[in-house]
Amino acid sequence: MKTLFAGTALALVLGAGAVSAAETTACLITKTDTNPFFVKMKEGAGAKAKELGLTLNTYAGKLDGDVETQVAAVESCIAAGAKGILITPSDSRALAPVVGKAREAGVLVIALDTPFEPIEAADATFATDNFLAGELIGQWAAAKMEDPADARIALLDLNPSQISVDYLRDNGFLKGFGVDIKDPTKMGDEDDPRIVGNDVTNGNEEGGRTAMENLLQKDPGVNLVYTINEPAAAGAFEALKAVGLEEQALIVSVDGGCPGVQNVEAGVIGATSMQFPLKMASMGIEAIKAYAETGEKPKASEGLDFTNTGVELVTDQPVEGIPSITSKEALEKCWG
After folding, report:
1. By CB atoms within 10 Å of each CB, which of 15, 159, 224, 325 scores lowest?
2. For residues 253 and 201, is the Cβ–Cβ distance under 8 A?
3. CA distance 79 to 249
């Protein structure tokens, strides 16, 4: 198994190596290989590929939003004769043309975690219900605040591209909290005076710290912080702590990784929605194996246009009417 970074399709093709015609080859293309979420996704895909006898080539962008490297990776997978591609698109719109090219070549394309736009750009999508993930933490936050009308909300999103996973979580959170969302496919168009503003984090701790600092300059009274993921939440907490405001603001997030669950246990994060990336990747490899053998493509969950891989609210401060598990329970199932 190889992890490759490259700026051109040629470099990726050369790096992937030759694959014999007798082998079934699968590709996993993630946004980065540093975020724990994608590390676990790679682990799940690798283990399942080994179990099923598939050759797996793995690729990753240099950072979240690195479309060029992901495009080159898809082209490399096509050239290498891959039977299936699992991809977490850095840009759910910009990657659609190249995955269309892969599908025309007979490659099964499955989006993991982040749906394409349109979702039909891929053959299937295995993902968390990201809107529900946001809605759960929004409902929890509204129940925990003494008076939601007094909220001063900072929204720490992913990047300026406003991809599907970003706006689904953000708008789900706002709806859960009771904010009137406008266009459900956009962020930042709300007119609720409780919203201090939106900033971007690139899904990492440094970005979370900077975004939180920016929004605190805008309004030092921020008392509720939504973050796209738990690394961003950790950075937001450090920014709050640096100015002595860590007790003032409630932080909520999405991911459910072990470091994030530990931060719930430590009181850094009030609640988080747990996803299951290892499950997504394992199911994706199984689907590629089935497609190679039978030509059958995976079907979406009943009533949905994607395969729902589940979500659970994690908090040590449960509220009535919102099902949740404790950090202790979550540490038994967190994905690393």
Report:
1. 15
2. no
3. 50
Count how many Cα atoms sit within 13 Å of the Cα of residue 74 in the half-sphere of its side chain.
29
302 by Cβ neighbours in 10 Å (0-12 / 13-18 / 19+) ranks as: exposed
Residue 189 near residue 147 (C-beta atoms within 8 A)? no
| 323's tokens | 């099902």
Q: What are phi and psi of 18, to 5 degrees?
A: -80, 145
Buried b (16+ CB within 10 A) or exposed e, 306-329: bbbbebbbbbbeeeeebebbebee
Element (H, E) at 53: none
Chain segment 81-130, per-residue pLDDT in tens: 999 999 999 999 999 999 999 999 999 999 999 999 999 999 999 999 99
174 vs 334: CA distance, rounded Å: 25
Structure tokens of 277? 């990336």
Instruction: Please tell me the distance from the alpha carbon of residue 265 to that of residue 148, in angstroms, as a whole number.
Output: 24
- For 12-63, the pLDDT digits (tens) are 333 333 334 358 999 999 999 988 899 999 999 999 999 999 999 999 999 8
DSSP per-residue codes, 192-260: -TTEEEEEE-TTSHHHHHHHHHHHHHH-TT--EEEESSHHHHHHHHHHHHHTT-TTT-EEEEEE--HHH
pTM to 2 decimals? 0.88
Which segments of the chain does DSSP mark as H helices, in order? 9-16, 36-52, 67-79, 96-104, 130-144, 164-177, 205-218, 230-242, 258-265, 277-294, 327-331
Q: What is the crossing angle of helices 67-79 and 96-104, to 10°?
A: 0
What one-letter code names the amino acid at 99?
V
